[in-house]
Amino acid sequence: MKVPARSLLQALVNASEKGAKIARVIRAESALLELLVQEKAGDQKNRRFVQDFKTLADVLVQETVRHDLSAQFPGIGASIYGEESNKFTNVLGESISVQVLQDQEATAQLLCSVLDDNMAAARLLAKVAHEEVLVDAGPELDDVDVDLDLEDLGVWIDPIDSTAQYIDGLCGIINDKGLVSCGLQCVVVLLGVYSKSAGLPQLGVCNRPFAQSTGEKWKGDLMWGVAIGETKVFSLPSAKTTNNKQNLVVLMSQSEKPDVQKKFRASCSVQHAAGAGYKLLCVNQGIADAYVLSKSSTYMWDCCAPHAILLAQNGGVISYKSLCDFNGDLSSCSELSLNQQITYHHDNQPGSGSQRWCNRDGIVAYCSLEALQAIIKANRDN
């Protein structure tokens, strides 16, 4: 069954905004947020952190996206994959499968059982989950004129990337380059569509629910990209930060290996920020030229959406290992970019839980071939 990419993209944009609204509603009530936090454990835990969390916000956003996309594109629901299990344990120790049901009242009754019989809160969340959200995706949407095979599509969802920042609820400080090292501004709702046959991302939507503080309220923003064959369209301004090859801006995690940080500091401006999704998005926006991670601490749901935007911008995401293994001339790095993009259709074997879907060999996200050349040179020379 063929579906217009334009229609699917618009549905993703609308779903991302509904997810952002859910995140803002929950974050606005501190007592409600505290009630909803549940520590992840076992196979679901990100091994990088001593503590990892999921919230009902994560689960409800994920299931709302699943519900809305399935309603518009019947059959796609079985191919929607997310970071979170939809199982949530309430204060009584009961395990409940959180879903968006056939109507608002049914969803409210289900959420009430999670929320310790707090029907007022349950109805508030159910109302947001069921309301119609329509977002103007921008004039660039008119340039998306291609169809997709629905049976070949998979969807990766990271409902709330930077959950720890979301729970802490602090307002980050923006530096003179437009970068926020931590805070609610690093939280991103990530929706990425990939080809099951080729594994490459094709559509990506990244929505920041807390992009800008306006007094007591938050204002969000979103961006999207399409990379389907020769069709490359994105909603961001085409004029991005000009690459300065003498002082490339490279984002890293604070926990990156010291020797890796030292290597790139020799010729690049190394900056730190919270959240894999946010760091990738900074490369999309031109705030940074690249994001380098040598560890296996990102997952397919982190990368799929911003990766699609990068491909639309003639950038990309390859593994850190492939960067280190590349021994060709810098002028031939286009072959590396063309043939070594990370893919999203196969898991890691052996592996269990979330580790099946980690980017085992690290990642390198770059905004252009010139940036990739500079990263390769920095990696070789230092």
What does this structure look like?
The chain has helices at residues 5-27, 30-36, 56-72, 104-114, 119-130, 163-168, 258-265, 276-285, 300-312, 320-325, 333-339, 369-381, and strands at 2-4, 37-39, 53-55, 80-82, 87-89, 95-97, 147-149, 153-161, 188-195, 201-214, 217-228, 231-234, 248-252, 268-272, 290-293, 316-318, 363-366. By secondary structure, the protein is an alpha+beta fold. It starts with a strand and ends with a helix.
Key features of this structure:
17 strands, six-stranded mixed sheet, five-stranded mixed sheet, 382 residues, alpha+beta, globular
Q: How would you sum up this structure in a few lines?
A:
The protein is α+β, with helices and mostly antiparallel strands and 382 residues long. The protein is built from twelve helices and 17 strands.
N-C termini distance = 51 Å
Strand order of the largest sheet: 4-8-9-10-11-12
Radius of gyration over all CA atoms, rounded: 20 Å
Instruction: Supply the helix-strand structural class.
Output: alpha+beta
Tell me, what's the shape? globular
Helix content: 25-40%
Main β sheet profile:
6 strands, mixed
Count of alpha and pi helical runs: 12
Strand content: 15-25%
Order of helices and strands: EHHEEHEEEHHEEHEEEEEHEHEHEHHEH
Give me the count of strands. Answer: 17
Uncertain runs: 241-245
Average pLDDT metric: 90
Would you spell out the secondary-structure blueprint of this structure?
Elements: E1 2-4, H1 5-27, H2 30-36, E2 37-39, E3 53-55, H3 56-72, E4 80-82, E5 87-89, E6 95-97, H4 104-114, H5 119-130, E7 147-149, E8 153-161, H6 163-168, E9 188-195, E10 201-214, E11 217-228, E12 231-234, E13 248-252, H7 258-265, E14 268-272, H8 276-285, E15 290-293, H9 300-312, E16 316-318, H10 320-325, H11 333-339, E17 363-366, H12 369-381
